[in-house]
Request: fold
Amino acid sequence: MNFKRLGTIGAIAIAGTILLSSCAAGTDSGTEEGTASDLTGTLVGAGASSQQSAQEAWVAGFQMANENVSVEYDPIGSGGGRDTFIGGGSQFAGSDRAFKDEEIAEDNFAPCVPGTGILEIPAYISPIAIIFNLDGIDSLNLDAAAIAGIFSGQITNWNDEAITSQNDGVELPDLAITAVHRADDSGTTANFTDYLSAAAPSVWTVGSIETWPTEFGGEGAPQTSGLVDAVTNGTGTIGYADASRAGDLGTVAVKVGDEYVPYSPEAAAAIVDASPLAEGRGETDFAVNIDRTSAESGVYPVVLLSYLIACNEYVSSDGVDLVKGYLSYVISPEGQSTAAEAAGSAPISSSFYEKAQAAVDAIK
Reply:
């Protein structure tokens, strides 16, 4: 598995077969038992660190089935991944948010033929765990207003009435809260703050953002691993991270309607299935508008959809079969099961898989 830091965008700009090469005549990923793969070359991607555990598993599975292929994914964060893709430094990107309408309208994607648009597939569905470190406490109940108050710096102590009132029988300490946030531009932050903005708009007033507001204070940490380390190594700390990285830290059950719902892959999948696709997008753009304020039983609204992003039509045809093969494996039942085992993610539905596979098949 090749997970390594990419160089500058310009240093690895796509040209001919520098990044990708393939002598395959089709898009066979070689994942079926007994099927020899004719794919060869190196595929480069970069982006969301939330996908890291899943990407490690996907890369291992794909390379095992395609012995002459090397896949390199750099978990530099969603913003870095999108910038790298835009600049031509990778052939695909991972991002915890879809490109915005205005970003797509600029049509400034170096690897893609102008005017052909991009493919965005929410291939990784995972709850965002609200993690904390308090001695002797494994779980807490919190509503959106309390979570927003904590991360905006309005609630500063663990025995604040806004917290104790929702946790009868839990001995919360007279201890300062240290709220840890991502220091880098982060799609996980965008999804987390999108929930706060929708579910507690009177408390969280800055909307859905990728860059943390300095006026809210707290402690910044780079990427998912840095945030988890900061929460783990602190006392009275709280943060947010892809649930696959929660480990032994305490976690929050979020109030939905009249119940408190702990995170789970099933609850994350339920909120996605109950949410509509974004309007006004291209046929191969499967951006989803998550219904963060749903009161349906059993849904967990603090969820991220992490996208895999590629061109519909590449400037260079070299390596297109590698892109198609890898994306086909990732979204396949086998690939989704692999990610679920490695990262605790929720598989995409079979009906969505059919639509996504048709879009992947059409890449050229």
